[in-house]
Amino acid sequence: MDKFSLHAQLASDCHLLGDLGLSQVLLLDDSRYPWVILVPRRAGVREIFELAAGDRHNLLEESCLTGEFMMHAFAGEKLNVAALGNLVPQLHLHHVIRNKDDPAWPGPVWGHSAAVPYPRQLLDERMRILRDGLSIAA
Amino acid sequence: MDKFSLHAQLASDCHLLGDLGLSQVLLLDDSRYPWVILVPRRAGVREIFELAAGDRHNLLEESCLTGEFMMHAFAGEKLNVAALGNLVPQLHLHHVIRNKDDPAWPGPVWGHSAAVPYPRQLLDERMRILRDGLSIAA
Fold it and tell me: Hey, is the C-beta of B116 within 8 angstroms of any chain A C-beta?
């Protein structure tokens, strides 16, 4: 079996928060939306249905943990959860906190407009909040 | 507890295929994409994490069944799975078969362009394929 390694595009676009039991946890470098991506550490998987049953279940639980915490911590109007992968085939699950005053509301965030990278202080703050809330070691 | 009823916008935009154990199964009336929506029959739920643990698990299994069958039956390049709900708050999970020659590729289908309703013959064919493949009684 091939060894898992994070897709170069995800590595380039995101900050690494750390690992949950199954998934690498990434923060997309777009300060306009709290946006966390879970990437199961399984090589060669493109679709959720390709995961083994136990991995599927763990991904769902990690997704619910992540989404519920983010909605609480960032006071979102709505959570968007999506596995798309049209551009990056490695299975990855988006969790995006949406608000009525965000740039893309109520449309989708994907493809809407160029990311606005985090200033250092806000990045440090969000990474700390997420690591604490998701119990991820730095 | 309130009784489940399908949101009027979903009822208006979709054809009802029938029921799985947890979810109502809808075919979006856009002939450009094989596009199935699962709606858990639970009143007042907006987010996946709000479902009870057993319901979450069943939704995941119904989603994997649906997505895997659709990728096989419609020879997709990529499956897009998403719970968005910015416009329709009732929890619903999209399953969209994407291909490199579809109108929105590689961008998101949501908000891209107006739906193209099914002609009757293609609608009948797709509904039959989906009901057979997902073992849904008509």
Answer: no
